[in-house]
Amino acid sequence: MFCLKRFWPACVLALLGAGMLIWPQANQQGFLALNGMLNALPAPAWRFLSIFGDWPTALALMLAWSWRDPKRLPALIVAGVVGIALSIGLKAGFNVPRPPLVLPPGTVELLDRLPGNGSFPSGHALASAALAAFVCQGMGRTGRWACYGAAALVALSRIAIGVHWPLDLLAGALLGWGTMRLALARCWPGGWPRDVERTAEMILLVLLSGALAWLLGQRAMYADYWLRVGIAGAVVLLGFIRLARRGH
């Protein structure tokens, strides 16, 4: 009962993931069914949703949200570092091939470039679940459902695009949600002193500026690319203005 009341998202994700491990065929069959069904929506819609699972975008949005409650900044940094490390390490360790490399040609509707790294777990599901857990902290039931629903759509976009198995999404979402919930509860829940907080925010803004410079160097023309640039650029600009005002 305690599990269901406080940690029901983790319970649901873990049960679904366990079912797919016990019955591996369900992972492939689930992908094929969802990939075909989800592509009833146009490709730009799924690429748009996928943006909110990019780590630079997710971190930028969490940083902007932390301005409302600076006590969450330590959790953002700890969970962000741990989440990125888990995503990179587990992908390299398991090295699971992505659906288009396993399934027969023509069975996968691929809507974007195929990433060159492993499939398990989904970094987008991990980042979007962490973002949802970060934003919905302290919200009522309706707000929490909205956050989790948005995170689910971001995760599903990776199946629609054709680059992840369902088990990748379940594992990524469980890791992202659990890591952020743990960080919010245990990592300096009372926040940092003002000078430490200001330094940490400055470092984050510098790192985000580097990600923005890299994005601008891509010179892409897609609408989802410019949305990534716009979100990162707006947070960087507003963040430096905010720090400058607080410094006076």
Could you describe the 3D structure shown?
This protein is mainly α and 248 residues long. The protein has helices at 2-22, 25-38, 43-50, 55-66, 73-94, 99-102, 123-136, 141-161, 166-186, 194-218, 223-247. The protein starts with a helix and ends with a helix.
Helix segment count? 11
Largest sheet: none
**Structural class by secondary-structure content:** mainly alpha
How confident is the prediction overall: mean pLDDT? 88
Q: How far is the N terminus from the C terminus? A: 51 Å
In total, the number of strands is 0
Beta content: under 5%
Summarize the amount of helix as a percent range. Answer: over 70%
User: What is the H-and-E element order?
Assistant: HHHHHHHHHHH
